[in-house]
Write a structure and sequence with these properties.
Layout: E1 9-13, H1 15-28, E2 34-38, H2 40-44, H3 48-58, E3 62-65, H4 68-76, E4 83-85, H5 94-99, E5 103-106, H6 109-122, E6 126-132, H7 143-155, E7 159-166, H8 177-195, E8 202-206, H9 208-213, E9 221-222, E10 247-252, E11 255-259, E12 264-265, E13 271-272, E14 277-282, E15 299-302, E16 305-308, E17 318-321, E18 333-340, E19 343-345, H10 347-354, H11 358-363, E20 370-373
Helix pairs in contact: 1-3, 3-4, 7-8
Bound molecules: pyridoxal-5'-phosphate.
Pyridoxal-5'-phosphate binds near residues 86 and 224.
Pfam family, one: Ala_racemase_C
Pathway: Amino-acid biosynthesis; D-alanine biosynthesis; D-alanine from L-alanine: step 1/1
GO biological process, one term: D-alanine biosynthetic process
Amino acid sequence: MRVELKRPAWIEIDFKALEKNYNFIRSRIDKKTKIAAVVKANAYGHGAAKIAPKLSQLGVEYFCVSSPDEGIELRRAGIKKPILVLAEVLETQYSEIVKGDLTQAAASLETISALDKLGAKAKKKVKVHLVVDTGMGRIGFFPDQLNEAYQLAKKLKNIKIDGIFSHLARADEKDKTYSYQQLQKFNSALDNIRESGFKLPLIHIGNSAAIIDLKESFLDLVRPGIILYGLLPSKNLNNEAALTPILSFKTRVVQLRQLSAGSAIGYGSTYKTENKEKLAVLPIGYKDGYPRLLSNQGEVLINGQRAPIRGRVCMGQTIVSVDHIKNVEVGDEVVLIGKQGEKEISAAEIAEICGTINYEIVCNLSERLEKIYV
Ligand SMILES: *Cc1c(COP(=O)(O)O)cnc(C)c1O
């Protein structure tokens, strides 16, 4: 595909693959369970303003973000469905919750009563989902505090308790013992509310790993993030998942050079040619979110073959060896993440080299890279 770009470095997003991943999730969960698509962090670097409307059109019922400003961005993109802010917020962010008609994760009585006051001022009911900390140790009421928090929040005139949720810390591991303990704590905390004679609001706990491996987590909603984008939450899952990565990160060869034997390449001269070597210069670097940890470690695809990185990844340029690849020309397409012919470089492969997870690799891709949605 040839498109006019300001700079020969871009991200391609495949909407067909997004639809496949969405259909996979639907086929996996129970009929009664709704999907709350997690599009925080600019849809894990994939562009929330484009991804969310597409998912809404496909039938996603709910959206999750990590801060009110992300919620406002979705409203601007035309999202009319409920948007849940998953993280704790400061007072300075409250007004956006009301302005955007967002639903706030409520993890403390202080937040709830502050939102109630704000609702009173705006003559609106502020929607909240109570968070329960069943073992994530991040935010939320402890299971034995939930009933009291629920009763108190219930009395507030300008608060609507729309849901109660918890988050799994280890659903991506083979051994699900910890996840079952979390589920059990969640359920017994909910039972306390039921026993007080209340009908429960929307309850949810499942993330991507749980959708693949833990059917007990299919409650009113599930909250898939990474699998929407076609990436696996870990390689330690028990079940297969038919997913297709929706993102490719591409650039073009901007220059070809021949260096003689014994030449040093890049900052710190960390690579020296043994023989004469043909190299290609790429106009991307760590400023684009292409990790510097790939220096002398990573590979890219050119003409359907792997080309190893030589020397250190620079801020805006990277050098790869094309000594073994025939017919490389200036302007040739280079795949940094994604497929070319039979070969593929996954975000997981890059993450492995960098000692991190695929989540971080895609999230860190620069927002300045142009995105093409096909
Ligand atoms: C990020 C997040 C998710 C989605 O996690 P994935 O592993 O990407 O599916 C779900 N729930 C909460 C509370 C989160 O913070």
